[in-house]
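Lab manual, section 2.4: Encoding a predicted structure.

Procedure: take the sequence of the chain (277 residues), apply the prediction step described in section 2.3, and record the output as structure tokens. A sample record is shown.
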Amino acid sequence: MLRFFDSLIREGKSLKELVGCEESQAVCIEFRKLGHEAYSCDIQDCSGGHPEWHLQMDVFDAIENRAYINNSGFYEFDDSKEWDLGIFHPVCRYLANSGVKELVRDGVKINPERWEKLKEAMNFFNKLKNCGIPKIALENPIPHIYARVGLDEENNHTYFGSTPGILGYNQIVQPWMFGHKEMKATCLWLNGLPKLIPTDVVGPPPKDKKERKKWAKVHRMPPGPERAKLRSKTYSGIAKAMAEQWGGSELKGRICTFKQTDNKINVNTQYELTLSI
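Recorded output:
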């Protein structure tokens, strides 16, 4: 899989890459550093400092119309400019396992409007998954069973319902696998892409409760108007790994090095890391 991208780079062809539902531009910037034509896309203004790389529009308009920004800073659309790679960060509010308490309480379904929002979120996620870009990664927290399996007309979870589920993810990564002493389980749904290889393992977090709390910065973030946006930002170490491993050749043939030795972490092969924790 890595050879596909290596061949594009050796031939002098940069990837045209779309990072959908990203206002932070964390992933977009890392791909730009490698010389790729990467764009962030969100209906919000970007906060990454590069509006010249930001498509402020509906993500499906960007996908279907092959949007890009010309040298004068104007949006243009060109059917001949196919997307090579799409990385998407759909809103997790209604899909994440942490929100299941807003759907069911004491075995009883509650909040009918929340169930409708869940169905919208599932359809949005699946539309991204099947958008036609040849190489796709979707990122979200661990989903609850209703989001994962799907729903029938009465909101029972079933694989054969009217609203298909987002199904199983291919990989879970943690910030501490990429140089950040924090924990936040992030699931990746991958199509045509290899699993990410940890690049700088500084964990797992300690078992001591007091010390462990220091690693839970995202989960312990105080309420506020910017809380959702701050919690959703991609860690720089993960963004860099995405760019280097999915859009470059820098990591080919390299075994990641660990700062901490732990008998629960085993490097099985050059491209595989098994975590048993």
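Check your result against the sample. The two ends are 28 Å apart (CA to CA).
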